[in-house]
C-alpha cells in the first residue's frame, strides 16, 4: 500500500513538472517555426517634440502572430527567446526591418531595442554595421535602446560593443530609466545620448508631487551631463504638459500614437501633418 501510495504521489507531481517544461518547449518550437514562417513583424511608435508637436522619430517594436492567429506580447516571449538564443536571429530581423524603414524616411530617428544577450555577443556591433551598409540607413539616425540591467549582466562585453557602436556614430539610449540600479554611475560611464524616463514616472507625473519631483531630478541630471530626454508612455494631455513644463523635450505614448505598421505610420503622418500638439 505504501508503495502504491508513493507511486501515486510521484505520478501526481511528475506530470505537473513536465507540463511547464512541455509548454516551454512548445513555445520554443513555435518561436523557431515562427522565424522560418515569417510570423514576426515590426511596428513603429511615433516620438514627438513636446514644444513643436513635430514627429522626430520612431521606436521599432517586435510583434509575433503565430500560425493559429494568436498574438504574443514581446514581454512574454522575449525572455524565452533570450534563454534559447533565438533572440539573436530575431533581433537581427528587427534591426534589418527598422533600418530599411529608416533608410527611406530620412527625417526620422529610429530606435531599436537590444537585449542583454545581443549586447554581449562579440559580433553585435559588426552585425549592426553590416546592416547599416546593406540597408543604406545612416548610423547617426539609428538609436540602440538598452536597459541598465542588460548592461550590468556582462559589463565588459557590453561596453566593448557600446564603444564600437558609438565609434560608428550610432546613438545609445537607456530604456526604462529610473527602474534599474545606480543610474548615476551608468550615465557617466555609458556616455549615452539619451535616457527614456520610464512609464511608471510618467503615469503619475501630472498628479503625484513625488513623481514630478523624480522627473525634475532626472531632467536636471540629464542636463548636467548633456544627455537628451524622452518620456515614455504618455497617455494624457496633462502628462504631456507636465513633462513639457519640466523641460523634458520629447515624448512617446498612446496620446501621440500607438505602435503601428510602417504603412499606417506614414498615413498617420499624412493625416495629421504634425502629430498632436499638446495644447
Ligand atoms: P519598451 O522598450 O520599454 O517599449 C515600450 C512599451 O510600452 C511597448 O510595449 C509599447 O507598446 C508600450 N507603450 C507605448 N506607449 C504606451 C502608453 O502610452 N501606455 C502604455 N501602457 N504602454 C505604452 P510592447 O511593444 O509590448 O513591448 C514591451 C517590451 O518588450 C519593450 O519595452 C521591450 O523591452 C521589449 N521589446 C519589444 N520589442 C523588442 C525587440 O525588438 N527586441 C527586444 N530585445 N525587446 C523588445
Ligand atoms: Mg524600448
Ligand atoms: Mg521602455
Ligand atoms: Mg521595457
Question: What are the segments in which pLDDT stays under 50 over at least 5 consecutive residues?
Answer: none
Oligomerization: single chain
Largest sheet geometry: 8 strands, mixed, barrel
| Rg from alpha-carbon coordinates | 21 Å
In sequence order, what are the helices and strands, one letter per element? HEEEHHEHHEHHEHEHHEHEH
Q: What structural class should be given to the helix and strand makeup? A: alpha/beta
Question: Tell me, what's the shape?
Answer: globular
Number of strands: 9
Helical stretch tally: 12
Mean pLDDT metric: 90
The largest sheet has its strands arranged as 1-2-4-5-6-7-8-9
Strand content: 15-25%
Distinct ligands, ions and cofactors found in the model: ligand C2E, magnesium ion
Helix content percent band: 40-55%
What gap, in angstroms, lies between the N and C termini?
77 Å
Please describe what this structure looks like.
- The protein is α/β, with parallel strands linked by helices and about 280 residues long.
- The protein is about 55% helix and about 20% strand.
- It has helices at about 1-35, 75-85, 85-105, 115-120, 125-135, 150-155, 155-170, 185-190, 200-205, 210-225, 235-245, 260-270; strands at about 40-50, 55-65, 70, 110-115, 140-145, 170-175, 195, 230, 250.
- α8 (about 185-190) links the parallel β6 and β7 (about 195).
- The structure holds ligand C2E and magnesium ion (3 copies).
- One magnesium ion binds near residues 175, 176, 196 and 232.
- One magnesium ion (MG) binds near residues 175, 176, 196 and 232.
- This is EAL domain-containing protein.
Amino acid at each position: 500500500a505504501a508503495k502504491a501510495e508513493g507511486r501515486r504521489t510521484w505520478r501526481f507531481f511528475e506530470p505537473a513538472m513536465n507540463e511547464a517544461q512541455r509548454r516551454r518547449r512548445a513555445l520554443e518550437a513555435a518561436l523557431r517555426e515562427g522565424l522560418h514562417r515569417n510570423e514576426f513583424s515590426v511596428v513603429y511608435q511615433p516620438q514627438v517634440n513636446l514644444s513643436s508637436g513635430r514627429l522626430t522619430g520612431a521606436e521599432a517594436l517586435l510583434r509575433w502572430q503565430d500560425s493559429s492567429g494568436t498574438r504574443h506580447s514581446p514581454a512574454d516571449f522575449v525572455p524565452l527567446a533570450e534563454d534559447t538564443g533565438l533572440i539573436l536571429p530575431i533581433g537581427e530581423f528587427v534591426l534589418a526591418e527598422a533600418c530599411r524603414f529608416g533608410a527611406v524616411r530620412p527625417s526620422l530617428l529610429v530606435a531599436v531595442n537590444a537585449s542583454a544577450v545581443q549586447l554581449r555577443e562579440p559580433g553585435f556591433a559588426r552585425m549592426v554595421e553590416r546592416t547599416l551598409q546593406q540597408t543604406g540607413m545612416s548610423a547617426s539616425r539609428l538609436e540602440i535602446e538598452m536597459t541598465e540591467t542588460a548592461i550590468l549582466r556582462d559589463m565588459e562585453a557590453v561596453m566593448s560593443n557600446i564603444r564600437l557602436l558609438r565609434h560608428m556614430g550610432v546613438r545609445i539610449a537607456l530604456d526604462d530609466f529610473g527602474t534599474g540600479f545606480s543610474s548615476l554611475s551608468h550615465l557617466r560611464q555609458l556616455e549615452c545620448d539619451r535616457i527614456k524616463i520610464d512609464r511608471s514616472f510618467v503615469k503619475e507625473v501630472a498628479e503625484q508631487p513625488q513623481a514630478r519631483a523624480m522627473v525634475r531630478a532626472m531632467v536636471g541630471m540629464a542636463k548636467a551631463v548633456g544627455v537628451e530626454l524622452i518620456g515614455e508612455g504618455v497617455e494624457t494631455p496633462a502628462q504631456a504638459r507636465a513633462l513639457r513644463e519640466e523641460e523634458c523635450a520629447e515624448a512617446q505614448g498612446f496620446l501621440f500614437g500607438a505602435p503601428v505598421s510602417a504603412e499606417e505610420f506614414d498615413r498617420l503622418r499624412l493625416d495629421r501633418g504634425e502629430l498632436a500638439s499638446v495644447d
